[in-house]
Amino acid sequence: MSDVIIVKSLDLKGLLCPMPVVKIAKAIKEVQPGEIIEAFATDPGVMADIPAWCRTTGNELITLEKQDKQFHFVVRRTR
Amino acid sequence: MYPADSTTFPAEATMHVSSNGKPVKNKVTMVVFSGDMDKVMAALIIATGAAASGMEVVMFFTFWGLKAIQKPNQATGKGLFGRMLGVMNRGGLDAIGPSRLNMGGMGRWMFKKMMKVKGVTPLTELYEMAVDLDVKMMPCQMSMDVMEFDPKNFQDNVTEPVGVATMLEHAAESKVQFFI
């Protein structure tokens, strides 16, 4: 992960469906293709929804992991 | 199903042709018939989720669903029955109640409170989000006539009234259709 430079970090903690997906969709438009953003959420629904959103939009999911009581994920804008 | 060298992503690949001969778009068309708080909430969550996933979204509001796009505190109706309907059945996202256990507004109050505690996005915010994400909202002309609603009773983002043919045209070129 040495080439991963995160240009934007989102705090989605406390937000429930559909907000994590809506917020990540907005944020990804604010970075350039190829750039990477990360987010922290507490809604367990993101474990299924973020990969689904990435498949639908074609953005690349770099990591998605559960850390203690939160979820951390990293997405690269593909185009 | 998709060619290996395809540069398009599954949700964008057009695989079908609609009944009007045009390619099917990456689009959702929704008929919102219900004006119940819970069902309108489901409709708005699907709409915002779809728009956030890069889909074009059209919502067609008919009958009770029109209450969801009404501005708050509108005196609607012209005749006796129409005015009665306007008084007894207040519109606006804050006034509509759940499909079950409303109990004269107690259920609405309870659900709102429970949703707030859990941090669920309120209906009005979901609506603003949908507008922000360019979700198109259309009212049904015929049910507006029946219920004596005027276009000026609706939120500013709502389009001119349309009919079934307009909805079907959108539905025919959509990948996903909902009736809520």
H and E order of chain B = EHEHHHEHHE
Provide the β-strand percentage band of chain B: 5-15%
Q: Quickly name the level 1 CATH class of chain B.
A: Alpha Beta
Supply the number of structural domains of chain A.
1
> Overall 3D geometry of chain A?
globular
Report the strand count of chain B: 4
Helix content, binned percent of chain B: 25-40%
* Proportion in helices of chain A: 25-40%
The 3D shape of chain B can be described as globular
Rg of Cα set of chain A: 11 Å
In CATH, the topology of chain B is named Hypothetical Protein Ychn, Chain: A
Rounded to the nearest angstrom, the distance between the terminal CA atoms of chain A is 20 Å
CATH superfamily of chain B: DsrEFH-like
Trace the largest sheet of chain B across and list its strands: 3-2-1-4
Q: Report the span from N to C terminus of chain B.
A: 30 Å
Question: Can you put this structure into words, describing what you see?
Answer:
The complex is a heterodimer of chains A (79) and B (180). Chain A has 2 helices and 4 strands, in the order βαβαββ. Chain A has 79 residues and is α+β, with helices and mostly antiparallel strands. The longest helix of chain A is centred in the middle third of the chain and has 12 residues, at 46-57. The radius of gyration of chain A is 11 Å and the shape is globular. The mean pLDDT of chain A is 93. Chain B has one domain (25-179): Hypothetical Protein Ychn, Chain: A (3-Layer(aba) Sandwich), CATH 3.40.1260. Helices cover 36% and strands 13% of the residues of chain B. Chain B has 6 helices and 4 strands, in the order βαβαααβααβ. Chain B has helices spanning 37-52, 80-88, 106-118, 123-132, 141-147, 164-172, and strands at 25-32, 56-61, 136-139, 174-179. Chain B has a 4-stranded parallel β-sheet with strand order 3-2-1-4, with helices on both faces. The radius of gyration of chain B is 18 Å and the shape is globular. The relative contact order of chain B is 0.22. The mean pLDDT of chain B is 89. The A-B interface holds A 14-19, 21-22, 24-26, 53, 55-58 and B 9-12, 45, 48-49, 51-55, 118-121, 126, 129, 133.
